[in-house]
Specification:
With 261 residues, the protein is an alpha+beta fold. It has two domains: 124 residues, 2,3-Dihydroxybiphenyl 1,2-Dioxygenase, domain 1; 115 residues, Roll (2,3-Dihydroxybiphenyl 1,2-Dioxygenase, domain 1). Helix content is 20%, strand content 43%. It contains six helices and 16 strands. The strands form two sheets. It has an eight-stranded mixed beta sheet with strand order 2-3-4-1-5-8-7-6, with helices on one face. The chain has an eight-stranded mixed beta sheet with strand order 10-11-12-9-13-16-15-14. The relative contact order is 0.16.
C-alpha cells in the first residue's frame, strides 16, 4: 500500500492567504509559536514550521481573488490519489472546481474545489510521500470543522470523494447534530448545520492545539484578533475559542484536557 493510498482523505497542509503575509507571520508566530522558513531561496512562499517540521504556508492573497471579494482566509489541502479524477467527481456530485488541476513543480498537483453548499478547500497529490504529524502536539492543526447549510448532504459529498466515515453523531439540543467524521476509527474533524439566523456562510474552520488557551487568547487579542465565539468548554474536557485574525481570516484554538497529576 503506497503513502498516496494511506493518506487518502487526510488533511496534510494548511495555507493562509493574507493581504499582508509579513503581518500574518508576525501575528501567528506570536500567538501560536510557529517558526517560519522560506520554501526556496528567491521565492516568496513562506512555510509555517512547528516542532514536527513544516505544516503549512502563507502567501499573498492573489489579486484576482481579492477583486472577486474573497477575504483573507485559511485553506487546507486534503490528499487524494488522483487530483484530476477527484476534480471530475466533484463536478458530477454537484460541487465546483474553482481552480482546475495545476502542477507545482517538485511539490505535487492540486485543485481548489467547493462542495455543493459552497465551502471550499484544496485537493492535493504530493510528488513525494508526506508524513502525517501527531495532531495532539502543541502548534499542530488538531481539528477540521465544517460549518454548512446542510451537514448531512455535505457529509454525503465528502464521504464519496475522500472516503470519510461517521465516527459519532452528537446531539447538541437546539443546535442540532454535530457529526464527527474520520478515517477508520481516527477522528479528524466535525461538521454541523449553521443555526438559522446566523450570517455565517458555509466554511471550513481549522483548530490549532495550544497548551495554554488563555495565554494564547491574550496574545491574539493584544495583537489585534477579535473573538467570534468562546472561550468555552467542549465535550471531553477540552476548551476552544473561535477568532478572527487582524486581516479577517477565521481560525480557532483548542486546549486539550489537563491530564491528572
Amino acid at each position: 500500500m503506497t503513502n498516496m493510498t494511506v493518506n487518502k482523505g487526510q488533511f496534510v497542509w494548511y495555507e493562509q492567504l493574507a493581504k499582508d503575509p509579513k503581518k500574518a507571520i508576525d501575528f501567528y508566530t506570536h500567538v501560536v509559536g510557529w517558526k517560519t522558513q522560506l520554501f526556496k531561496e528567491g521565492e516568496d512562499y513562506v512555510m509555517w514550521v512547528g516542532e514536527q517540521g513544516p505544516l503549512g504556508g502563507v502567501m499573498r492573497l492573489p489579486d484576482e481573488a481579492a477583486k472577486m471579494g474573497t477575504p483573507p482566509h485559511w485553506m487546507a489541502h486534503v490528499q487524494v490519489e488522483n487530483v484530476d479524477a477527484t476534480a471530475s467527481q466533484v463536478k458530477k456530485l454537484g460541487g465546483k472546481v474553482y481552480k482546475e488541476p495545476t502542477e507545482i513543480p517538485s511539490v505535487g498537483r492540486f485543485a481548489v474545489i467547493a462542495d455543493p453548499q459552497g465551502a471550499f478547500l484544496s485537493i492535493f497529490t504530493p510528488s513525494d510521500p508526506m508524513t502525517l504529524h501527531d495532531s495532539s502536539k502543541a502548534g499542530e492543526f488538531c481539528w477540521n470543522e465544517l460549518l454548512t447549510s446542510d451537514y448531512a448532504a455535505a457529509f454525503d459529498f465528502y464521504s464519496k470523494i475522500f472516503g470519510w466515515k461517521i465516527v459519532q453523531d452528537m446531539d447538541m439540543g437546539p443546535m442540532g447534530t454535530y457529526r464527527v467524521f474520520g478515517i477508520g476509527d481516527k477522528q479528524i474533524g466535525g461538521m454541523m448545520t449553521i443555526p438559522k439566523g446566523q450570517p455565517t456562510p458555509p466554511m471550513w474552520l481549522y483548530y490549532t492545539e495550544t497548551p495554554d488557551l488563555d495565554a494564547a487568547l491574550g496574545r491574539a487579542t493584544k495583537n489585534g484578533a477579535k473573538v467570534m465565539n468562546g472561550p468555552m468548554d467542549v465535550p471531553g474536557g477540552g476548551r476552544i475559542v473561535l477568532l478572527m485574525d487582524p486581516q479577517g481570516a477565521a481560525f480557532a484554538l483548542h486546549q486539550a484536557p489537563k491530564k491528572a497529576a
